[in-house]
Write a structure and sequence with these properties.
This protein has one domain: Sodium:dicarboxylate symporter (Proton glutamate symport protein, Orthogonal Bundle). It is mainly α. The protein is built from 23 helices and no strands. It starts with a helix and ends with a helix.
Amino acid sequence: MSQNIAASNTRTSRKWYKHLYIQVIIAIILGVIVGHYFPGVGENFKPFGDTFIKLIRLLIAPIIFCTIVSGIASMKSLKSVGQVGWKSLVYFEVLTTVALVIGLLAVNLMAPGKGMHIDPASLDGGAVAGYTEAAEQQSISGFLTHIIPETVFGAFAEGNILQVLFISILFAFGLQLLGDSGKPLLATIDLIAKTFFKMLKIVMYVAPLGAFGAMAFTIAKYGVASLSAYGALLICYYITGFFFVFVVLNIVARMTGFSLWRFLRYIREELALVLGTSSSESALPRLMTKLETLGCDKPVVGLVVPSGYCFNLDGSCINMTVLVVFIAQALDIDLSWQHQLSLLVILLLTSKGAASVSGGAFITLAATLGSMNSVPAAGLVIVLGVYRFISEGGALINVIGNGVATLFISRWNGSLNMAQLQQELDRGVKKKSLVDNDMLAKADSKTEDIRVHRT
């Protein structure tokens, strides 16, 4: 019987080094070592990370389009779409507001920039000129007009998530209004989506290489020294991020009826990928697939996750509030509570467009400083060196936040399969138990062999 158990568990268990998150973590560690001890070599690995991100972004637009169109067109009525839509917007606005407030409170309490006494006149704005120029286009009217692309294919060519989202929803509504005559086209779109996910599976084989290249370049370019130089800022940000995830999102998870810790274990491969590449977009397609496996309806996943990547960037909201106030503290600029309240209102609007352009969070930060007129935009130079390390934390929080949001909205909408959710979240524990049972079975077999031999 022990041999049968061992044989069964051997087939079920999977070698540890074949897990993607293990491969990515090893790649990250190697990247840190190469970047630190061989910085000249480490900077040359930048194309590895950039190429992997380009491969992911190549697939994101068509995957979002196919998923949203399939999801909305599969719904029984436009009323169902509207219900998911308004619930998503309410949730996004509440959680991003909470993230902004928590970031504001934390940076005021810890005051990481106090005592730096940097003279604003000594700042060289040339290093952030590109960001400030792009920020000039980030006005409210510019943001609204930017949602609509010049052409249908222009959004896909640029990889603009917000524009792809707009086209996808519009196309889905049109397809649903076709009724039964549109079903063949819907089936074709579903098949195209499956093809793109197969392409994604192929791309994931080089994920460790991309993570290695991105991390080697980051450490070689900015160095571990930049971490210690801005230690107080990093501590402030990551304490705030941990609080938001393990307190705020944990409360949301419990309200939904699942364990946040088990959910984090379930998406550990996606989190490792985001950590290595500093991009939440790298995990978007795989996150959508896993949420469907957890029991969320495909239409809800297809609508909530892509829109969450535009309107529910909790990590980006935290880093923007922390960085704006940190820059003011470093420049000895006293921001009154009226200024900080106006900052909160501005960020509630500008943060919604952070995903619409490349380097969106930093550009949005520049736009926010430009709107305040109390903190010079050239102050971005102060955080330019350490921003990469902060953006990694923001990307992780964005992925976790959108995963929790989808599960919560699915439960709120009455379309979450709770039995399937718990079963899938338990799989990680069961896999570990299977490995343990396998080891016990082998130990029992060896003991039996020894006993027989002695006899």
